[in-house]
Amino acid sequence: HIADEIETNLLTQGFQVDKTTGDWQRGTVHQQAYLTDQRKASQSPVLHSQPYTLFLEDDSPFTCHQADLPACLSRMIAALESDLNLVSTRFMRRCDWEGGVQVMRQEDDHFFSPNFDFQPAILRTRDYMLANKVIQDNWDQLSHLQCELVMRIALDTLSRSQWRHMVWLPEYAETYHLGTPEYAVTKKALNL
What we know:
The protein is α+β, with helices and mostly antiparallel strands. Helix content is 45%, strand content 14%.
């Protein structure tokens, strides 16, 4: 089973793994299982010991084009450190950018969006914990919605600014979704 292989690999690299299982069919059940996993993860004592949390999805590899990965991730954390109203920093898919996204303010290598996504993202761990508390307290109203929308609603309660979510422009750094048609072309072009 692939989940067991991933767990074994992570454990051998020194990670603590908190695995959940559920009915992962697409649709509402998937969204509820994803949110339930997020709520469980937000209660991890190991996670609480870290100031920031990096969210990765196993089907969304990412790359930094104009900096090395540690520098890119450090800039994401520095942005969160310098602005308490910023609640997330993240990568995005080039196809999403080209398809049209809502840009509230654009700068040299990033922009601010009203939207949140887990494709990868860095959040303050405390904000993540508080957002999950908002989700838990409003489960009946939120559990039927798409998981990133629910997290955005919860995170937005923690900020007074309209510039809450910083996103890299794809020319600086981007992510891909495995299994989508554009991924095969991009993978070949980048020699991934």
